[in-house]
Amino acid sequence: MFHRKTLYWLLFLTVFVHCKPNTENKEVVKEQKEVISQEEALAIGQDIAVASQQVLGKNLKQAIEKKGVLGAITFCNTAAIRLTDSMATAYKHSIKRLSDKPRNQMNQASRAEEKLIAAYSKDLAEGKSISPSAFKKENGGYRFYQPIVSNKLCLNCHGVVGQQVNEKTFAQIKALYPNDKATGYAANQIRGLWAIDIEN
Ligand code: HEC
Fold first, then answer.
1. 20 in any annotated domain
2. Which residue's C-alpha comes closest to atom 38 of ligand 1?
3. Residue with the larger pLDDT of the pair 24 and 72
4. Counting atoms of ligand 1 from 1, which one is nearest the CA of 182?
5. Residue 13: inside a domain, yes or no?
6. 183 and 170 in contact (C-beta within 8 Å)?
7. How far apart are CA 173 and CA 165, in angstroms?
8. Would the CB of 164 count as within 6 Å of ligand 1?
9. In a domain, 16, yes or no
10. 103: Cβ below 6 Å to ligand 1?
11. Atom from ligand 1 closest to the CA of residue 72
12. In terms of Cα–Cα distance, which of 59, 61, 49, 104 is closest to 79?
């Protein structure tokens, strides 16, 4: 059996010998090379989502330790989008958190994204493994999504009001977000999506 590398070399040589590119299709070859594959988009997206989640998670934990849940709401209110924006600048990709039941209306998922969340939720509830998605965009590049799963810590602010979310916390949330939809969650549910645009 051929070693995979040998096979690639042979393929390369065959292509190279048979179609010596003229300057015109050299451009085409170059263009094709720059287009990233779905696998690459998934790998890039995952790296960014994991890093962003870590930054946000670390800051949230610190805020709760320092100021308690009530004080940490202000942190989420003022710092969450700022932090994802700064990650976006660092990675040169657009990074957002979206939800079908958003707290901040700026994080509202589209109809198609709501369907994706519903599909992820169904799989998670049925105990199936869930993995990120990357969809080709019409004008090139990919839109990457990674599900955001709730844990116990999240329930302080996203759990059931009167149970994990106490009245004081809820009052503060309502004061900042009169249209809040992001309570009533249990642990291990889909709270939303990381949405990352990956350009070619
Ligand atoms: C201290 C309270 C608090 C805790 C704890 C908390 N959140 Fe939030 N969460 C908020 C606030 C406030 C917002 C709105 C942020 C904004 O205005 O951008 C928010 C927004 C979000 C959003 C963006 C979508 C939306 O609803 O606007 C996601 C996703 C999210 N939280 C997931 C989580 C997850 C997952 C955890 C647990 C790891 C968690 N949150 C823990 C307060 C909290």
1. no
2. 154
3. 72
4. 26
5. no
6. yes
7. 10
8. no
9. no
10. yes
11. 1
12. 59
CB of 163 closer than 6 angstroms to any ligand 1 atom? no
Give just the sign of the alpha carbon dihedral 120, 47, 101, 182.
Answer: positive
Q: Is the shortest distance between the CB of 79 and ligand 1 below 6 Å?
A: no
Q: How far is the CA of 117 from the centre of ligand 1 (A)?
A: 16
CA of 76 to the centre of ligand 1 (A): 6
Q: Is the CB of 63 within 6 Å of ligand 1?
A: no
- Report if residue 25 sits inside a domain: no
- pLDDT tens, residue by residue, 61-102: 999 999 999 999 999 999 999 999 999 999 899 999 999 999
Domain of 146, in residue numbers: 36-198
Number of domains in the chain: 1
Answer whether residue 21 shows pLDDT above 90. no
Which pLDDT does position 85 carry in this prediction?
92
Residue nearest to atom 16 of ligand 1 (CA): 77
3: confidence class by pLDDT, cuts 50, 70, 90: low
Which atom, in ligand 1's list, is nearest to the CA of 81?
18
| Distance from Cα 5 to the centre of ligand 1, integer Å | 47
Contact 194, 148 (CB under 8 A): yes
